[in-house]
Specification:
CATH superfamily of the largest domain: Medium-chain alcohol dehydrogenases, catalytic domain
Strand content: 25-35%
Distance between the termini: 10 Å
Largest sheet: 7 strands, mixed
Number of helices: 11
CATH architecture of the largest domain: Alpha-Beta Complex
């Protein structure tokens, strides 16, 4: 099969012929229809972040496709089923999984990080992780649910627990941030989108933002947010992963507010402990999504409440995957999808 392989120290992926994997006990072989491209992969390519599995490794963690083969012991899916594969796979047995927090699994395995991923024609995964995809939904669009939609949904509903009538600021409106905007709007919040890209702010309004702010237009974007909301927002999401934007989100809170950090950063961040104490602020982290949340997301997409059309910018053949990463680096589009 064809696959895009990361070699140690390489800034690009190499499309190679590699052996097609075979499903072992409890596993399914999925023929990949599409795999969303994520900025996480740029951490591996551009920023020196190591994958848990040492290269060579196949990247890609936002896949959807069709079940091509099954281990004889699998009964929950059939060959030909249309499925979504969660970005992070869990064991189902540890204390976190039993508590419904599969995303914190003691033995979690992320596609394209811990194990070979889905920038490939086929991938093998545990069959019990597969999420059914209705026939009326496009696999090319649904693929981004595996991370770009599910991560925001988990952050909004399970971690920050956004409630109707609350004010929310979303700092960073890339593929994940725009979905935070629409998930928060679906939850009934009044949303302010914050980004330096005016085109993305326009899309944020299409997805439910009632206000937008380009931080380059003011010396104190945190102060501007507090002015817009008469004292600060109830919830601020940071979806970039930089110390200064985490600080911006934190400083935009009203008393009793909560900041939810979704963006990944390996750099230390300074927050005023006095404010956390005196204003009863909450600092919350959010990682991925629990397996039980995917059917909820699929239902909201079927109902038209969550939209994928504005998020998926287009498809890219596997052979041109490095051109796709150049688009990500240049900030072109929102979410590109590789079609093996």
């Amino acid at each position: 099969m064809k696959a895009a392989v990361l070699r140690k120290g390489s800034p690009t992926l190499e499309v190679l012929d590699v052996p097609t994997p075979a499903p072992g006990p409890g596993q399914a072989l999925v023929e990949i229809a599409a795999c969303g491209m994520c900025h996480t992969d740029l951490h591996y390519l551009d920023h020196g972040v190591s994958t848990f599995k040492a290269p060579p490794i196949i990247l890609g963690h936002e896949p959807a496709g069709t079940v091509a083969a099954l281990s004889p012991d699998v009964t929950n899916v059939s060959e030909g089923d249309r499925v979504l594969i969660p970005a992070v796979l869990s064991c189902g047995r540890c204390s976190y999984c039993r508590a419904g927090r599969e995303n914190l699994c003691d033995h979690l395995a992320m596609l394209g990080n811990h194990i070979d991923g889905a920038y490939a024609e086929y991938v093998v995964v545990p069959a019990n992780e597969l999420v059914p995809v209705p026939d009326d939904l496009s696999l090319e669009q649904v693929s981004v649910v595996a991370d770009a939609v599910s991560t925001p949904y988990h952050a909004v509903t399970k971690r920050a627990k956004v409630r109707p009538g609350e004010t929310v600021a979303v700092v960073g409106c890339g593929g994940v941030g725009l979905n935070v905007v629409q998930c928060a709007a679906v939850a009934g919040a009044s949303v302010i989108a914050v980004d330096i890209n005016d085109d993305r702010l326009t899309i944020a309004r299409e997805l439910g933002a009632s206000e937008t702010l380009n931080p380059t237009t003011t010396d104190r974007p945190d102060k501007a947010l507090r002015k817009l909301t008469d004292g600060g927002v109830d919830v601020a999401f940071e979806v970039i992963g930089k110390p200064d934007t985490i600080g911006l989100a934190f400083n935009a809170l009203r008393r009793g507010g909560r900041v939810c950090v979704i963006g990944f950063s390996h750099e230390p961040v300074e927050l005023a402990a006095s404010k956390i104490m005196f204003y009863e602020l909450e600092v919350i982290g959010s990682l991925g999504c629990g397996g039980g949340e995917y059917p909820e997301i699929i239902r909201l997409i079927e109902e038209g409440r969550l939209k994928l059309d504005p998020i998926v910018s287009g498809t890219i053949p596997l052979e041109q995957i490095n051109d796709g990463f150049d688009k990500l680096r240049a900030g072109q589009g929102i979410r590109w999808v590789v079609t093996p």
